[in-house]
Write a structure and sequence with these properties.
Helices cover 28% and strands 31% of the residues. It is of the alpha/beta class and 287 residues long. It has two domains: 98 residues, Beta Barrel (Elongation Factor Tu (Ef-tu), domain 3); 157 residues, 3-Layer(aba) Sandwich (Rossmann fold), CATH 3.40.50.80. Helix 5 runs parallel beside helix 6. It is globular, with a radius of gyration of 18 Å.
């Protein structure tokens, strides 16, 4: 059985971990916006995760995992020297990269990990990239330095005002729209955040792209689990996306579908907590 060694593991925020994994073929083929599906062990759940960084030279890909459910918390117990049993990819269509002019790239929470490689590619294509990173508190802000280096201007927003500016990412986006021309918006984060961005940009006619992460199993379009309604038609996020026109996405149906297994997920998480002594840090760098 093939194993994929973890060469680097570090916490970026509470329950949010950076893992660099040996996967040279994926690293060579990866483009911004694409994702992988990983399994922690032979009988494990398949988890879709966006590739936050790839190094063809080192033969590694990096993923950022937020420990929310049983499997993601299990993955976050892994350290350098451990391995994943499977990593499949790169999957999905890459971000459409052109010189649009001025692009606002928004990363809400762990969505910053998904937005980061796309922001890099958009800047390399000649765009002026304005990035907005949002989190509930200062402790949960991730990739601030990387986003600052990759974009023309960075704005950090926290819900509680403990860092950057107080408010939601939509508050800053509205301010930018009021002050200057925005030619395109890429928003990645919680579904409700992406929905709010879509409604904000719709009356202005600003093309807006979102990256959807619905229930996903096989990543090849065969299972149909990742169906999303876009423009009134069923699309599969794994092969037709994960990025779609935000103004065409039926967010209401997406939110409902993502809640289908909530009770089962909670039961699995409760059992995990009962049977595992987790190596989960509460703060980055804790021992």
């Amino acid at each position: 059985m093939s194993m994929y060694p973890i060469v680097e593991a570090r916490f970026l925020a509470p329950d949010v971990k950076w893992l660099a994994i040996e996967a040279p073929r994926i690293a060579r083929k990866h483009q911004a916006g694409q994702f992988v599906i990983v399994r922690a062990h032979e009988h494990g759940e398949r988890i879709p995760l966006t590739i936050a960084h790839a190094s063809a030279k080192n033969g590694t890909v990096a993923i950022i995992v937020q420990g929310v459910g049983k499997t993601t918390k299990l993955i976050n117990t892994l350290e350098a020297g451990d391995s994943l049993v499977d990593i499949v990819g790169p999957l999905g269509k890459p971000t459409e990269i052109e010189n649009y002019g001025v692009v606002a790239v928004i990363g809400g929470g762990v969505g910053a990990a998904i937005a980061y490689p796309s922001a890099v590619a958009l800047r390399q294509a000649g765009n002026a990239v304005l990035s907005i990173v949002g989190a509930r508190t200062k402790q949960l802000v991730i990739l601030e330095n990387e986003m600052r280096a990759a974009t023309s201007e960075l704005f950090v927003m926290t819900d509680d005002g403990s860092y950057g500016e107080q408010g939601f990412v939509t508050h800053k986006l509205q301010q930018l729209i009021d002050e200057r021309r925005i030619d395109r918006v890429l928003a990645i984060g919680p579904t409700t955040m992406m929905q709010a961005v879509a409604e904000l940009t719709r009356p202005h006619g600003i093309p807006t792209i979102v990256s959807l992460n619905p229930i996903m199993v096989d990543g090849t379009g065969m299972c149909g689990g990742c169906r999303v309604l876009v423009g009134g038609e069923n699309r599969f996020a794994c092969v037709d996306g994960p990025e779609f026109d935000a103004h065409a996405v039926d967010f209401r149906s997406l939110i409902q579908r993502n809640r289908v297994y909530r009770q089962r997920e909670q039961a699995a998480l409760d059992k995990f907590h009962e049977t595992h002594t987790c190596r989960l840090f509460t703060t980055p760098g804790s021992q």
